[in-house]
Design brief:
Helix content is about 30%, strand content about 40%. It is α+β, with helices and mostly antiparallel strands. The strands form 2 sheets. A 7-stranded mixed β-sheet has the order 1-2-3-4-5-9-6, with helices on both faces. A hairpin with a 2-residue loop joins strand 2 and strand 3. The longest helix has 15 residues. The model has no long low-confidence stretch (mean pLDDT about 95).
């Protein structure tokens, strides 16, 4: 398994990133200013993630997406661990992310040591062109989690 930083033709990975964020216009906003990392084995792409520098020692995970056939095999957790290490080595003191309020997603991040610190009411209904449903749950609020690095 190898993780590489992609600096050119980032748009090539939008179909994969759409797994983690269904609104292409939202992806375009953070992809242009963020760092894209892709995990693969040989010629097979498995996972992608976008991280941004939010200033003040804070890095934000904007997107992490794993192809369905590779989900629940530890690839997302491995990518998250890699990103945490990279961010810590670059001097960031905190890693944050926002996600929808679903038990599966929140449980994953909490099992990785993240804790909820903020809720942005009606984020998904105000910022997305259509309703977003994740694991049968209609997303409304953005839940923000953080972890000290």
């Amino acid at each position: 398994m190898e993780i590489v930083k992609i600096t050119k033709n980032k748009e090539k990975y939008i179909p994969l990133l759409l797994i983690g964020d269904e609104e292409e216009s939202m992806i375009a906003r953070y992809l242009s200013r963020g760092e894209l990392f892709v995990m693969g084995e040989g010629d097979t792409v498995i996972c992608a993630a976008v991280v941004t520098d939010e200033g003040g020692g804070t890095a934000e995970l904007k997107n992490i997406s794993v192809y369905p056939e590779f989900q629940r095999r530890g690839y997302g957790r491995a990518m998250l661990g890699f990103l945490e290490t990279c961010c810590k080595e670059r001097g960031f003191s905190e890693f944050v992310m926002g996600t929808g309020e679903t038990p599966q997603t929140l449980g994953f991040y909490e099992s990785c040591g993240y804790s909820v610190y903020r809720r942005e009411r009606d984020f998904f209904t105000k910022n997305y062109s259509r309703p977003i449903i994740d694991n049968g749950v209609l997303l409304r609020d953005m839940i923000y989690l953080k972890k000290a690095l």
